[in-house]
Amino acid sequence: MLEQNKGKVDYLCHGCAQTMGEKRQELMQQVFTPGTTMPTIALDQLADIEIENMQKMKDSEEAAKKRQQEQEDADSDRDSVGDAKQEEARRWDDWKDENEKGAGNRFGK
Q: Could you give the CA distance from residue 22 to residue 25 in angstroms, rounded to a whole number?
């Protein structure tokens, strides 16, 4: 079948509504595409996302440092409690060495 448009002759493909020029254009768009995936966001948007991620990392690092400081404070509190118990045990041992069993009440008086 021949169809004439303004002096040009285009061939219709077998019963389709597209002319060969339209079909050729469609095929070229499919074939000549970039080999890599094209970006879906702008650089400004990417920069905003990176800044948000950096802020989140900074906040989490500060929280970790705060937890570590609290842990160290709790450890020092435990150390002071342990030191007090140890000192009390030492005093008790010293007292037991100085005061033998039964030394205070002789002959049931």
A: 5
Q: Both tokens of residue 16?
A: 């389709």
Tell me: the pLDDT tens digits for 53-95?
999 999 999 999 999 998 888 777 777 778 888 899 999 998 8
Strand partners, 11: 2
Predicted confidence at residue 101, as pLDDT, reads 75
HEC profile of the chain: CEEEECCEEEEECCCCCCEHHHHHHHHHHHHCCCCCCCCCCCHHHHHHHHHHHHHHHHHHHHHHHHHHHHHHHHHHHHHHHHHHHHHHHHHHHHHHHHCCCCCCCHHHC
